[in-house]
Every structure is written in C-alpha cells, then in structure tokens.
Backbone:
C-alpha cells in the first residue's frame, strides 16, 4: 500500500539539515546555557546563533526573539500577558471566528476571568474584513489578534491593514503565523506585528519548540515565573538542541520562500479533481489569497472521513467530524457559512517539500476509484 503524506499543515518532517545540526548537540550540548563554565559554551553559542537565524527570517533583531515550547505557548503568552498588564480600564480583545484553538481557548479562558472578547466574522472565503475590526474597537481594547493564514483552508488575512488599524488606535497587534512562517514572507515590519507566534514543527523543526516575537518596547508578563531566562520573558532553562533545530529550520526556510514547485503540484491536484468530478468538488478558502501548499476541497454529498478511510495510505485531514451518524462541520467551515452538504465532504490536502508529482497522480487516481 502506497503511503503518501499530505498533512504538512498538521506537522512537517524534520529537515535533514536540521537533523545534522541537532546530532552533535546530543553529545556536546548538555551544558546549561546560563552557566559560566566550559560546558555551557557550546549550548550558549548554539542558542544565540539560533536566535539570530530566527530573527533573520522574521526581519527583526535577535533580542526580540523569545523561545517557547511551541506555537500554543507563544499564543498563550501573547494573549494572557497583554491582558494581565495593569490598566485603569477592563481589558478587551478582538480576534476572529476562525482562529486556531491555541488562540480561541486562551480567549475563552480570559473571558471567564472577566476580559471582554469580540469574535469578528469572516466571509465565504475565510477573509476578515478590516472594517469589522475597526467597528469592534472600544476604549477598552488592548489587543487585536488575527492569524496570518488559516490552518484549514489556507486563506491569508490582510494582516498589514488590520495592524495599521490597531496602531491608529494605540492597540497592540498579535498574529499567529504558525502556518505562514516558511511558506510565505513573514517580515514583522511588513506585517506590522507587535507580537508574532511561530511553531517549530510547522517549519520542518521538531515538536516542542516555538517562538514569540516581541517588538522592542512591548512589555510582556511571563506565564512561567522563575529566573531571568529569555530576557525575563519566559523562565525555564533553554534547550540548545531544540533552539538550534528551529534556527536551522528558519535558515533553510528562507531558500524555499518564493519557490513555486509546491504550489504547482497543489494546483495540479486541483485541476485533476475538477477534470474528474466537475461541480461535485468545491474549493474551500480564497481562490488566490491562499497558502501555496494548501488545498481544502469538498466532495459534495459525501463524507470526508469516509473517503479518507477508504484510502488508508493517504495522510490528510477532514473538515468535519462524524459522531453517532451525525456530521459536524469544523468551526472554520461553519464560520464561513459552508452548507452542511458541502462541508461534510471537506478534505484538506496540505503539500510540502517532499511531495512529488507521482504522489499527486496517485491521490487523484485513488479518489477517482473511491468516488466512482
């Protein structure tokens, strides 16, 4: 049975160049980077080199990089720290209805603590209207958080416009860039981000490492209190192994941004599906403002989970869940007002660096066999 991986938005393999950087640190990087002796030197050098590599990808300075355990921690740190800062008025946060749970769940937690949260809608392609952001602002708004690109449908938000609105009102702006880093340009100045989250395992680094970019002048309160690691912004002894891995992954990613081969294969798969199924297959997400690797499609009148179950060698994700015969759309498709008979047949194919045309051909062939 052919095994084909088309779930790169869920997690990526570790790049061989990243593995090569990690290997010597398994033996020589055991020292505590904060110590002052010879055993700490390799670990400290690896840590700071990695900080510079991540900064180079994001277009910022090394001291603006805070290493975390992943994208979820980075989002939690951004949201909770801004809302917990001393203020004379109650806190108010604006976000979108289609954020990743790593943003939505912290917002729900903050709401239980008395923080007001506004969830702006999206259109049928998953786009946020910046005017809806502007209308949601109140005198209490302290943070706006909108993801750069959606993990399910790939729609890329007008982040620079939203950030501009935030700054016109003196409001801090955060974006979850877990899906966009390494795929499209994520320069923090171009985006206008004050805070930006990165997840290592979405950019061909291991799981367990991430970054929160914190613009100079933005003060954040650490979630974890202890010593002065990461400039006092995130306590806990840093892992030279994992930070070096993420640093190298970010360095490698710079080479891939702008290469069109992954998008060519994604579009080839879409063309094959349209040619085979015609109007029985529907694209979910924006037709052009979309991550170059992401193809979310619905097979009308079918159930995505059943389709994938009939192709056990294909690793992809569905846009609906089936429990006791009831099909529930994902919150993203629901927010996009996708009709149930369409959304229940949603499958996300997310391609990556190691996807081949032979694999695309095989997936198209298996879909034709299963759905014929």
Residues:
């Amino acid at each position: 049975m052919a095994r084909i991986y088309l779930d790169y938005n869920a997690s990526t393999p570790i790049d061989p160049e990243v593995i090569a950087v990690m290997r010597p640190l398994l033996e020589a990087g055991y020292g505590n980077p904060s110590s002052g002796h010879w055993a700490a030197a390799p670990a400290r050098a690896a840590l700071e080199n990695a900080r510079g590599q991540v900064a180079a990808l994001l277009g910022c300075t090394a001291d603006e990089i805070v290493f975390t355990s992943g994208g979820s921690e980075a989002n939690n740190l951004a949201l909770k720290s801004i809302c917990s800062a001393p203020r004379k008025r109650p806190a108010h946060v604006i976000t979108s209805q289609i954020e990743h749970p790593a943003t939505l769940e912290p917002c729900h937690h903050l709401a239980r603590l008395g923080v007001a949260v506004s969830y702006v809608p999206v259109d049928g392609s998953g786009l946020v209207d910046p005017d809806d952001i502007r209308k949601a602002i109140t005198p209490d708004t302290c943070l706006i958080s909108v993801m750069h690109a959606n993990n399910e449908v790939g729609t890329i938000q007008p982040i620079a416009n939203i950030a501009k609105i935030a700054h016109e009102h003196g409001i801090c702006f955060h974006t979850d860039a877990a899906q966009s880093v390494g795929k499209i340009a994520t320069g923090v100045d171009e985006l206008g981000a004050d805070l930006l989250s990165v997840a290592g395992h979405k950019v061909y680094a291991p799981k367990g490492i991430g970054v929160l970019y914190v613009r100079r002048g933005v003060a954040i309160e650490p979630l974890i209190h202890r010593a002065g690691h990461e400039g006092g912004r995130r306590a806990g002894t840093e892992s030279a192994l994992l930070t070096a891995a993420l640093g190298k992954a970010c360095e490698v990613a710079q080479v891939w941004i702008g290469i069109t081969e992954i998008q060519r294969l994604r579009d080839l798969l879409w063309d094959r599906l349209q040619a085979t199924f015609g109007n029985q297959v529907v694209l979910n997400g924006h037709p052009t403002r979309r991550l170059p690797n992401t193809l979310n499609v619905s097979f009308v009148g079918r159930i995505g989970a059943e389709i994938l179950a009939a192709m056990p060698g294909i690793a992809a994700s569905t846009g609906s869940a089936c429990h006791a015969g009831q099909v529930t759309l994902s919150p993203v498709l629901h927010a996009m007002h996708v009709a149930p008979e369409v959304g229940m047949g949603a499958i996300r194919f997310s391609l990556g660096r190691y996807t081949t045309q032979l694999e695309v051909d095989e997936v198209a062939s298996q879909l034709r066999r299963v759905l014929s």
About this structure: The chain has a mean pLDDT of 95. The two ends are 20 Å apart (CA to CA). Residues 16-256 form a domain with the Aspartate Aminotransferase; domain 2 fold (CATH 3.40.640.10). The CA atoms of residues 64 and 216 lie 6 Å apart.
